[in-house]
Specification:
Blueprint: H1 3-14, H2 35-42, H3 46-54, H4 62-71, H5 76-85, H6 102-110, E1 116-119, E2 125-129, H7 130-136, H8 149-154, E3 164-166, H9 170-187, H10 192-204, H11 206-213, E4 223-229, E5 233-244, E6 249-255, H12 261-277, E7 283-285
Antiparallel strand pairs: 1-2, 1-6, 2-7, 3-4, 4-5, 5-6
Length: about 300
């Protein structure tokens, strides 16, 4: 077994299935996550995870290592150790991190009955739960580089947002996203991917270019959004953006007041979600969701 495989196996055994979003049962023999559970959450095939653990697959990509580090809820130091054991350089300082601390993942798992998405500083979606899929569509259907809110808002050929209306209006919503990207550029000047995103959108979108040169900076506040959902119709939800300053992450949540019609519609989505996934609190983390791949081929 290689060093990478030993680390993978040890950290898999350490992680509680409950903290990963699974229901613990008395019949479990594995002390932590089962191999198939790790594979599902990281978006890899079970065979590929087995070969990684046994040392038969020796060149995992940075994307695969990042997905495994997030799924295993590693600390930043442990994440860097996993990268080095794979012969890769850890993510550089001065660039946007996709690392999600274990505490943030545990919090999100325990709030699994509401739609939750976790975004990086450039508004790239890196973690979501099953309820997020029920409300917004399944992000795993998109390539990882296209799971970006700014691309959805301003790109001509990128992903589309679900049909919805915002309480303060689309223009204010757009301005707030651009203000966040401007702030990210000032704090992460070495991030080439962020620079390419901004240059692409400035060239492609007149609205983005206008907001970019406007001094007005719209700040995120709690607001209501109306979704036009294909299954439950119009649903009005409170949208909150919770910041994790130390990790520079944004956790977006959608809730409805108890006893309202909208809460009933959210309950209906929850039931549909449970029937589809087999567990209403099952987590679908980025970057590849539940779409299993064999990255070794």
């Amino acid at each position: 077994m290689s060093e990478f495989g030993e680390l993978l196996r040890g950290w898999r055994d350490r992680l509680s299935p409950v903290d990963a979003g699974f229901t613990a049962t008395n019949g479990r023999r594995a002390p932590g996550l089962r191999r198939e559970e790790l594979a599902q959450l990281a978006g890899l095939s079970v065979d590929y995870v087995l070969r990684l653990e046994q040392g038969r697959a020796r060149n995992p990509s940075a994307q695969v290592v990042g997905a495994l580090a997030r799924t295993l809820q590693l600390s930043r130091t442990e994440r860097d150790q996993l990268y080095r054991s794979a012969g890769l350089l850890p993510p550089r300082d001065g660039t946007i991190s996709t690392h999600i601390p274990a505490s943030i993942q545990r919090l999100a798992v325990r709030l699994g009955d509401v739609p939750i998405g976790v975004f990086t500083a450039d508004w790239t979606l890196v973690w979501w739960n099953a309820m997020w899929c029920s409300l917004n569509g399944d992000p795993s259907a998109l390539p990882a580089e296209q799971r970006n809110l700014a691309l959805a808002l301003f790109g001509n050929n990128g992903p589309a947002l679900p049909p919805m209306e915002t309480e303060r209006g689309l223009d204010v919503f757009e301005a707030s996203i651009v203000a966040d990207l401007k702030d990210a550029v000032s704090r992460y000047p070495a991030d080439g991917q962020l620079d390419r995103l901004v240059q692409h959108l400035r060239a492609e979108s007149k609205a983005f270019a206008h907001h970019w040169v406007t001094e007005f900076a719209a700040r995120h506040t709690s607001e209501q959004k109306t979704f036009h959902h294909p299954d439950v119709g119009e649903i009005l939800l409170d949208c909150d953006v919770l910041l994790a300053p130390g990790a520079d992450l944004r956790m977006v949540t959608y809730t409805a007041a108890t006893g309202t019609t909208d809460a009933g519609k959210l309950d209906l989505l929850r039931v549909t979600c449970a029937q589809t996934t087999g567990a209403g609190n099952h987590v679908l983390p980025g970057p590849r969701g539940t779409r299993a791949i064999d990255a070794g081929r």
